[in-house]
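job 3f2a | input accepted
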Amino acid sequence: MKEEKKMRNMKGLMVIMLAAVMVIGGNLALAKEEASLKSIVKKIEPQDKLITQADEVTVSKGSAKEGYTVKLKDVGKNSIIIDLDMGGGKKVKVLRRILKLPNFKDVLEGYWAKKHIELVVAADLINKGKSSYFRPDSTQTREKFARTLVRAVGIKPVSVLEDVSADVPESSTYAKYINYIVNTRKIMDLDASGNFRPEDKITRGEAIVALCKFERISEDWEMVKSPFEDLPPRHKYAKFISAAKKAGMLDFAEQRGYIDADGLLTEAELAVLITKTKSGKKAIADLLNWEIGYGVNVDEKNVVALSK
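job 3f2a | predicted structure (308 res):
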C-alpha cells in the first residue's frame, strides 16, 4: 500500500512538472515571438511618435523596394496604420503616431518665439488657415485680439441680436466675440464715448490686462517697485503688469529687459502669452500627449505601437 501511494505521488509530481515545463516552454515561445515582432517593428519607418514639419512621410518595412509615401493631414495629430505580414498566416497592424507642426516661411530656425508659435498653431489656439506665413512681427487690432483670445480658450459665444457698442454693429463678424469679452466676462472696456475702437491696434499693456482678467489674476496691490525699468510705477497698467510678471507670463519681456507697455502687441508675443494661460497649457499638454487624439486604441484590434 505504501509503495502504491508512493508511486501515485511520483506520477502526480511528474504530471505537475510536465505541465510546468509546458507552461514555461509556451511562455518562452511567446516571449521569443514577441521579441521577434518588436525587432521587426523597430525597422519600420517612420518611427512611432515622430514630430515633423514635413507634408508627407515615407513608409518603409525595412526594404527600399517596399517604401511608399503617405501624405499627412493638416498640422496636429496624424496616425498611420501599416499592415505587416508575419508569415504563417499571422498579420498585425503597426501604429505610427505622427505630430505635424506648422512650417512658416517667416518663422526661421533660431527665432525667439518659434517653439511657442508652432505649438499654439498645432494646438489650434491660433488659426492661420492654409497660410505659409505667420507674420510674427505684425500687430493686432482690438477686434482681432478679442476673437483670438475667445477662440484660444475654446469658448463659442452666441450670436448677438443688437449692436455691442456704437462702433460694433450686430452685423460685424467680430460682434459676438467682442460682446463676450466686454459684456459677458468684462475683460475689455468701452471708452468714455461708448466705443470699443475695434480697428485700433491693441497695446501690450491692454493685452496683458485682458489676459490677467481672463485668468482671474488680480492687480498687484503690494507692488512697491515697478516690475520693469521702462514702466513708470504710476502707469495705469503697472499693477496688472506686475501681477502678470509674478505669474510667470512675461518671460519674453524679462529676457529682453523691457516691456514697452504702450507699444503695440505683436503676433509672436500674443502666441507666447497664450501658452501661459490655463487653457493654453492644457491644450498644449493634450497636443503632446501621445495616448490621446490619434483615433486608435493600441491595446485593441491587434494594433502594435513601437513603444509597447
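job 3f2a | Residues 124-287 form one domain.
job 3f2a | closed
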